[in-house]
Write a structure and sequence with these properties.
The protein is of the alpha/beta class and about 230 residues long. It has helices at about 10-20, 25-35, 100-110, 125-130, 185-205, 210-220; strands at about 45, 50-65, 85-90, 115-120, 135-140, 150-155, 155-160, 160-165, 170-175, 175-180. The longest helix has 23 residues, at about 185-205. Residues about 1-5 and about 230-234 have low confidence and may be disordered. It catalyses: 4-hydroxy-4-methyl-2-oxoglutarate = 2 pyruvate; oxaloacetate + H(+) = pyruvate + CO2.
C-alpha cells in the first residue's frame, strides 16, 4: 500500500512564501540539492498565467478494449481533498482526453488547486474562462470514455523518468510543472528565495549600468542559493 506523505503546506507561513515563488527558482533550488529529477517533462500550461501548487493527488489510467458497453473514464474528483493538485497519468498520450469542463467545474467548487495531466485535456476555452490552472502534455477533443478507465488513485507515478508520489508538492506555472518531495519543501523554499534575491541584485546592478558579467560575479550567480548576504544598498 502506498504511504502518503504529510502535507508540508499545513504551515501557513511556508505556504505564503511558496506562493511568491515560481518554477524557475524552485528548479534552481532543486538543482543545488542534486536531488532526483523534479521536472515533469512535456507539461505545458493550458490556462496562461495560472499557478497551481499543493500536495499531489495521483491517479493512473489504463486503456480498455471496446466491448460494446459504456465505460466512464474515471470517477474520483469528489474524493480529492481541497488544496490538492490532481496529477493524472495516461502515459503522455494525446489519443484521448483525461480532463474536461465537467471536471473543471467540480474542481473549482471543491477548492482543488489545479490539475496536471500526463496526457491530453479538452474544453480548454471553458477552463481558461473559468481561470482554473490546467496543465497537460497534449490537447485533443477526443473523449476518454470507452477508451481508458481509472486504474488506481494514490499510486506512485513515473512521468517520463520523474517520480511523483502521493503527497509530494507539485508546483506548476507558465514554465511547466515540477515536483518536490514533501520532506525537502522547506529547504527548497529557503534556497529558492535566496536564488530570487541573488537574481534581483544582479538585475538591479545591470539596470544601473554594471556589466552583466561583473554583476554576476559580485552577487554569486554561480551559487545563487547560498545568498552571500550582500547589502542591497548601492
Amino acid at each position: 500500500m502506498t504511504t502518503v506523505s504529510a502535507d508540508p503546506l499545513t504551515d501557513a507561513g511556508l505556504r505564503a512564501r511558496l506562493a511568491r515563488l515560481d518554477t524557475a527558482a524552485l528548479s534552481d533550488a532543486m538543482d543545488s540539492l542534486r536531488a532526483a529529477p523534479c521536472v515533469l517533462p512535456g507539461i505545458a500550461a493550458r490556462t496562461p498565467g495560472g499557478v497551481a501548487f499543493g500536495p499531489a493527488f495521483t491517479l493512473r489510467y489504463r486503456p480498455i478494449e471496446d466491448d460494446g458497453g459504456f465505460h466512464n473514464a474515471a470517477n474520483y474528483i469528489d474524493d480529492v481533498p481541497p488544496g490538492s493538485v490532481v496529477v493524472a497519468d495516461n502515459g503522455g498520450t494525446g489519443a484521448c482526453t483525461n480532463w474536461g469542463s465537467l471536471l473543471t467545474s467540480v474542481a473549482l467548487r471543491r477548492g482543488i488547486a489545479g490539475t496536471v495531466v500526463h496526457g491530453a485535456v479538452r474544453d480548454v476555452r471553458e477552463t481558461r474562462e473559468a481561470g482554473y490552472p490546467l496543465f497537460s502534455t497534449a490537447v485533443t477533443m477526443v473523449s476518454g470514455k470507452n477508451r481508458v478507465v481509472l486504474e488506481r488513485t494514490g499510486v506512485d507515478l513515473d512521468i517520463d523518468g520523474t517520480p511523483v508520489r502521493p503527497g509530494d508538492l507539485v508546483f506548476a506555472d507558465d514554465n511547466g510543472a515540477l515536483r518536490i518531495p514533501a520532506d525537502l519543501v522547506a529547504e527548497v523554499v529557503r534556497r529558492a528565495e535566496a536564488v530570487e534575491r541573488t537574481e534581483r541584485r544582479i538585475r538591479e546592478a545591470a539596470a544601473d549600468g554594471t556589466r552583466l558579467d561583473e554583476a554576476r560575479a559580485r552577487y554569486g550567480y554561480a551559487r545563487p542559493w547560498e545568498d552571500g548576504g550582500h547589502d542591497d544598498a548601492r
